[in-house]
Amino acid sequence: xxxxxxxxxxxxxxxxxxxxxxxxxxxxxxxxxxxxxxxxxxxxxxxxxxxxxxxxxxxxxxxxxxxxxxxxxxxxxxxxxxxxxxxxxxxxxxxxxxxxxxxxxxxxxxxxxxxxxxxxxxxxxxx
Length: 127
Fold this sequence. Notes:
Helices cover 76% and strands 0% of the residues. It has seven helices and no strands. The longest helix is centred in the C-terminal third of the chain and has 26 residues. This is Hpt domain-containing protein.
């Protein structure tokens, strides 16, 4: 049960689907939300990594905040928690903690992308 709960916290749009009517129209809308949220792929991490290397921590924090908001709608609780911890470390200028937190957030984001891609293939094949 812990594994299922853990898996559900990576990516879970069932509740969103239910709130939107749980019909074909809802599936179409949620599929678009998933595609749009995942469209940037790894670009946010590339941009945030560059911002950190270039000593622009506020820019990196904004990127993660934005990512957390867009992907959080997909039920990505683990990514949200990892991103929040990273944003906090960046804001507090805890340079020693940032690399490990960045790696954790990046790994969680990769899981979200993989689960989103799988979900899209099962529920909303491309037209």
